Amino acid sequence: MTTLERAEAAEHALSQELDKIAVKSVIYTSGERDPREPMPRPDAKGRRFLMGHDARLPKMPDKPTLVDFYRLRFGPSMHMLQSARLAMKSGAPEKVVVACLLHDIAITGFIRSDHGYWAAQLVEPYVDEEVAWAIRYHQALRFYPDESVGYQYPELYKTLFGEDYQPEPHIARDYQAAREHKWYMTSRLITVNDLYSFDPNVTVQLEEFTDVIGRNFKQPKEGLGFDASPSAHMWRTINWPTRYL
Ligand SMILES: [Fe+2]
Ligand SMILES: [Fe+2]
Known about the structure:
This protein is mainly alpha-helical. Helix content is 48%, strand content 2%. The chain contains 13 helices and two strands; from the N terminus they run αβαβααααααααααα. Strands 1-2 form a two-stranded parallel sheet. Strand 1, helix 2 (26-29) and strand 2 (48-49) form a beta-alpha-beta unit. Helix 5 (94-102) packs across helix 8 (129-141). The chain is globular and about 65 Å long. One fe (ii) ion (FE2) binds at residues 103-104, 115-116, 138.
């Protein structure tokens, strides 16, 4: 058996133990299998398919808040918390602090590719327009230096992507658009406070930002995912990632 087959077999055994069958969306295995082939279908053997909470995950409250997502779905968030604290300490406006706090939620909870755009869409209905805008464009600004605020092209990117990596035309285009925008500096300050190598010994508690979140994030009364906002379905999918439909 290959590593992938072994992982799939273990997964299959685990899903057999659940009373409902959990299925994987295409994106879970994208890159590991030929996307022109149909997804393998689990053998139901009379069992039902999952249409809600996945028992392998910590259960979210019925009306989840942003803080619940940090605690139960967003993996290690220390990078964002440290960035937000750094912004706060530097005396940056609160919009920048909250943007730093949220800027990488797509990576920690949803999807890595195009993370700035996904994160912006997730939070857009609930934060000031400028905050969502800044999160969207930090994706492109990360690749371009700005001497005026001491921001250099990250050394880490040379290691990660190679010395010869050039941002693609859509990134270059969005960088140019952001550069000329009135909110440029809000987005730029995310990159300035975005820590590449954060201190593993510094622990920042989410409680430090309770008031900032309260003032800047419009928590829907129905719970994130159950309101009628344009991104509610995205929060719902993070909550219930293995629903059959
Ligand atoms: Fe980022
Ligand atoms: Fe970041």
